[in-house]
Amino acid sequence: MTVILIVLDGLGARQVTPDLMPTLHGWGSEGLHRQEGAISVLCSSTYPNFGSIVTGALPSQHGIFANEVAVNGSPMPASAVGPSVPTFFDESSEVVVGDQHLIGVMAAHTAGRHWPPSDELPEEGTALDAFGYVADQEVAVRVIAALERQPDFLFVQLNGPDTAAHAYGPDSDEAIESYRSLDRSLADIDGALRSQWDETLLLVTSDHDQETVELSQRVDLGALASERGVEVTVLNEGTAAVVVGPGVENPGWFEGVPGVESSHSVRDDIRLVFSAPEWWFGHPWSPALRGAHGGLRTRSTVAIAAGGHQSLEVVASAFRRPRL
Q1: Tens-digit pLDDT profile for residues 160-207
Q2: Which residues on adjacent β-strands are paired with residue 263?
Q3: Is pLDDT at 64 greater than 70 in this prediction?
Q4: pLDDT over threshold 70, residue 324
Q5: How far is CA 31 from CA 201, 208, 303, 323, in A?
Q6: How many Å from the N-terminal Cα to the C-terminal Cα in the chain?
Q7: Which residues pair with 280 in a beta bridge?
Q8: What is the reported pLDDT for 248?
Q9: Distance CA 167, CA 227 (A)
C-alpha cells in the first residue's frame, strides 16, 4: 500500500469544479470530497501550514508562524530554521516538491528520499515558473518516477496556482489558466496511479486560498512600530502580519490604523494582525502583488480523498464532521 499526500499551493476549495479542474473534481466524486473544504492554520500561508501538515502540530508548537521566523529579534528564513518538533517522515517516505525551500521548512531530509535534493533549485534545465519555483509539469514527472518506486508514503507539493494568483490575482484569467494547467499535471499523475489504484490511499489538500489586494493599500507595521517606539519584530505575511516581542502585550499602537481589521494574541510574545479586505502588509520595497493570503479570509483549503484501498473508509468519518 502507498499513501500519497498531495498539497496544492494556493488553491482554494472554491476552485475545485468539474469544468475548471475535472481530474481533481473527479477524484473527489470517485472518493470523498468536502465541498466547503477544510481550514488552514494561521497565518494562512505556505510555510506555517506545511509545518502543521507534516508534524500534526499547531504553529505555536512547531514554531513557524510565517514564511520567516523571528530568531533573537531578527527575521530568518523558515527553511533555515525548520520545525521545532518531529515530522512524520522516515526512511520509508519520499518527498517531491516544487518549492525547493520546503525541504528545509519541513525537515524533509529526514525522509528516505527527497527532490529537489537540497534547499536549492534543481539541476539546470528544469522548467521554472515566474517566481523561480519548479513548474508543475516538471514536478509531475518526478512524482510519476516516485510512484514506480512504490514508497510507503509519498508527499507531493505543486506550486503553480500560488504563483499565478500572487502575480495576477486569484480570479484573473492567468490564475484560472494555472488551475487548468495544474489539473492537467494531476491527470498525468492519475494515469500513473491507475495501475496501482487498489493499493493506494490518495489524500489531496492545499495550504490556503488567495484574495485580491490593491497595490496602493499597504500597511507598514514595522515602520509604524519604529515611529511609535514599540520594540517588536514584524513579519509581513500578505493579509496578515506576525508581530513578535514585548510590544505585543498592548496592541493600542496599531489599533485604528487604516487597513488593520483585527488581531489576536497567540502567545505572550506573539500577536497576529489581520488586514481589511483589499489591504495587505508590507514594506515599501515589498514585491508588487495582486493576490495575497495570510489572514482569515483565505483559510479555505481543498479536502479530497480517493483510491481503491480499504483504508479510504478509515478517513471517511473525518470528512463527515462539520467544519469548525
Answers
A1: 999 999 999 999 999 999 999 999 999 999 999 999 999 999 999 999
A2: 273
A3: yes
A4: no
A5: 10, 22, 11, 19
A6: 31
A7: 218
A8: 85
A9: 31
Question: In degrees, to the nearest 5, what angle opens at C-alpha 57 toward C-alphas 55 and 61?
Answer: 115
For cell 528544469, the residue is 126
Is pLDDT at 97 greater than 80 in this prediction?
yes
Rounded Cα gap, residues 160 and 175, in angstroms: 9
Q: Which amino acid is at 248?
A: V
Tell me the per-residue pLDDT of 244-261, one tens digit each, with 9 for 90 and over. 998 788 889 998 999 999
DSSP for 93-112, written as a single string: EEEEESSTTHHHHTTGGGSS
H/E segment holding residue 183 = helix 173-193
Quickly count: other Cβ atoms within 10 Å of residue 231's Cβ.
11
DSSP 225-268: HHHTT---EEEEEBTEEEEESGGGG-GGGTTT-TTEEEEEEEET
Which amino acid belongs to residue 322? P
Looking only at the bridges linking them, the beta strands covering 270-275 and 2-8 are unpaired
Give 199-211 pLDDT, tens digit per residue.
999 999 999 999 9
Q: Which residues contact 171 (CB under 8 A, 6 or more apart)?
A: 212
Could you tell me which residues come within 8 angstroms of residue 307 by beta carbon, excluding any fewer than 6 positions away?
4, 31, 197, 200, 201, 202
**Mean predicted lDDT score pLDDT of the chain:** 95
Q: Which three cell numbers stand for residue 8?
A: 496544492
Q: Full-prediction pTM beyond 0.90?
A: yes
Q: What are the cell numbers at 240?
A: 496578515
Which amino acid is residue 196, in one-letter code?
Answer: Q
